[in-house]
Amino acid sequence: MHFSTQARFSVCCLLLLLVLIACGQPQHLEGVNEGSRRPNFLIIMTDDMGYTDLGAFGGNDIATPNLDRLAMNGIRFSNFHGHLSCAPSRAMLMSGTGNHEAGLGTQTDIERFRGERNYERYLVDRVATLPEILRDAGYRTYIAGKWGLGGPLALDPSDRGFAKSFALVPSGGGHFQAIFHQSRYSYNGKEVPEPEQPTFSTTLFIDQLVSFFEEDKNSDAPFFALFTPTAPHWPLHFPPAMKPSFDGHYASGYEQLRAQRLAGAMQSGVLPEADVQVYQAKASAWNTLDEDEKALQAQVMEIYAAMVAHLDQEIGRLLNNLQALGALENTLILFINDNGAQGGPVFGGPRSYSEGRSFDNRLENLGEGSSWVNMGQGWADAVNAPFRDGKGTVYEGSVRVAAFANWPGIKQPASVYRQYLNNMDVLPSLLELAGIAHPAPRFNGRDVLPARGKSFARVLRGDASPVHPDDEAITLSSAGRHFMQRGSWKLLKELNADWELYNLADDPYERRNLAATQPAKLDQMLTEFRLHAKRNNILDR
Q1: How far apart (Å, rounded) are the C-alpha atoms in residues 187 and 203?
Q2: For residue 119, what is the DSSP state?
Q3: Torsion over CA of 402, 408, 409 and 411, rounded to 10 degrees?
Q4: What's the rounded Cα separation, in Å, for the pair 14 and 9?
Q5: Is the Cβ–Cβ distance between 84 and 339 less than 8 Å?
Q6: Sign of CA dihedral 180, 182, 188, 189
Q7: CA 259, CA 263: separation in Å to the nearest integer?
């Protein structure tokens, strides 16, 4: 068969056009999901929860039957890692890169980092986000809940790939909207006023997410849904009708709760085989508190527990709605805590939220929408244990989080995967399951970075080998706090402190700093950290 010169020219132009279009779009991988439909994705990322809050991770004092059922019929990830606070942790999830590459080298405005590359405090265009890639590949994309990645540009989820969104714009706030006097929500990119009738945050977000599914119930396109409740982040507030739920449950104190949680976690199989009894708590011993302080502390934990139990109930409502719509079929559900629970003082919220407002923190009013209280150091010690410290640090109590996956395609359900994973691994995993290649180096007309995470799709399919090799250095930082993991070795540096070195293989709870006794290993780790820091403008200030 012969073609004219004009025909050959037309074919060449068509091929060139297709190549140019493809260079800016996510590519489908032939054969990745051969013979099956692309899966739906539902990611649940909670806010400031402890490692053992769920029954599936040892917390038998709080009823979490819906999440426990998902976890125990799926794969629990006992060695999963986020970051030290919400924004950098979420930036890793959204981008598949480190938080610095994504622009979140710091979450708060700190003078010494102003104007520096990778410290922009918003999700920069140098990364292609998970919803952007999935949306361009034909997925419906939804978010309901906390966003926290807009920064000084006030970027909305609708700016970064979500077709339908209901978002809490700031990084935190009261769970009853009436606590504030200005709007803090956006709906599909537009600011919306507070509801006239105060609605508890978790219920409000679930209502909106369910409405998105209802609106698109006739669509055959797969979905990516991100549910990001602010519970149980401070300020702690009782959900409606939940106040009596935990009366008297925590009168014995945080040390007893810690012991119960550790026993439950060991029994459930999520803790490493190591002595968990040696633990340096930061809070005062329970028996040193007077009766008024004990009553206050017990009430604080009752509020926190009610928020977690209510969160599980609302997730159950979401699952029931999706089941009724036929939207749970072939759906991968991934649950992740963004970071560990936050300690510190019980009263005295961040100045940006509490200044200019008065709160009624009498014991009889504590937990109402007009009060402001944090869970405090003692309970954070208990729910993060046996891991060291909590949110805002780079110790394991902050960055190691409870996580699990539930999906009909899982080959070994009711199992525990003990190898290291982190938030950066989510994006490449979902793209592989959807049969989509990462679009780097070009996406929608802009240069984008490749994903740094590694896919754990094969783990879901029954391969329990490590996703990250022992010689891979995983380096992260936030606002001058640094940490790097390489195999079982962990290097870290807190603010205004010396470098520390731990071997997590025999010291998973970071009790023995080896920096002085292993100088060669310390130098090796520091060299690797500094190379990565130079490439990504991680500043040690």
Answers
A1: 16
A2: -
A3: 70
A4: 9
A5: yes
A6: negative
A7: 6
Q: How far is CA 26 from the centre of its chain?
A: 25
**Which residue type occupies 442?**
R
Half-sphere exposure for 301 (CA within 13 Å, toward CB):
29
Q: For residue 196, what are the CA distances in angstroms to 7, 176, 177, 193?
A: 65, 11, 9, 8
SS3 at position 222: coil
Q: What are the distances in angstroms from CA 368 to CA 301, 303, 493?
A: 14, 9, 38
Distance CA 331, CA 222 (A): 9
Backbone angles phi, psi at 531, to 5 degrees: -65, -45
Q: How far apart are CA 448 and CA 65, in angstroms?
A: 41
Q: Do domains 39-468 and 470-541 have the same CATH topology?
A: no
pTM summary value: 0.93
Class of domain 470-541 as given by CATH:
alpha beta
DSSP state for residue 270 in the 8-state scheme:
-
37 phi/psi in degrees, rounded to 5: -75, 155
Please identify which residue in the block is written with the tokens 């200030």: 541
The gap from C-alpha 112 to its chain's centroid, in whole angstroms, comes to 27
Half-sphere exposure of 12 (CA within 13 A, CB side): 7
SS (H, E, C) 357-390: CCCCCCHHHCCCCCCCCCCHHHHHHHHHCCCCCC
Q: Which fold has domain 39-468?
A: Alkaline Phosphatase, subunit A (3.40.720)
- The ranges assigned to domains in the chain are 39-468, 470-541
Instruction: Report which of 139, 136, 118 is spatially closest to residue 127, judged by C-alpha positions.
Output: 118
Provide the 10 A C-beta neighbour count for residue 274.
Answer: 16
Closest CA to 481 of 223, 123, 122, 107: 107
Least Cα distance to 120 among 93, 87, 85 occurs for 87
Find how far residue 144's CA is from the centre of its chain.
Answer: 14
* For the chain, counts of helices (H) and of strands (E): 13, 19
Q: Residue-wise pLDDT tens for the chain (541 aa)?
A: 444 444 444 444 444 444 333 444 555 443 344 346 899 999 999 999 999 999 999 999 999 999 999 999 999 999 999 999 999 999 999 999 999 999 999 999 999 999 999 999 999 999 999 999 999 999 999 999 999 999 999 999 999 999 999 999 877 788 986 455 456 899 999 998 877 788 999 999 999 999 999 999 999 999 999 999 999 999 999 999 999 999 999 999 999 999 999 999 999 999 876 666 666 788 999 999 999 999 999 999 999 999 999 999 999 999 999 999 999 989 999 999 999 999 999 996 554 455 556 789 999 999 999 899 999 999 999 999 999 999 999 999 999 999 999 999 999 999 999 999 999 999 999 999 999 999 999 999 999 999 999 999 999 999 999 999 999 999 999 999 999 999 999 999 999 999 999 999 999 999 999 999 999 999 999 999 999 999 999 999 8
Positions of E strands within 407-480 = 415-417, 421-422, 436-437, 442-443, 446-447, 473-478
Measured between its terminal Cα atoms, the distance across the chain in Å is 70
Residue closest to 53 by CA, chosen among 310, 282, 227: 310
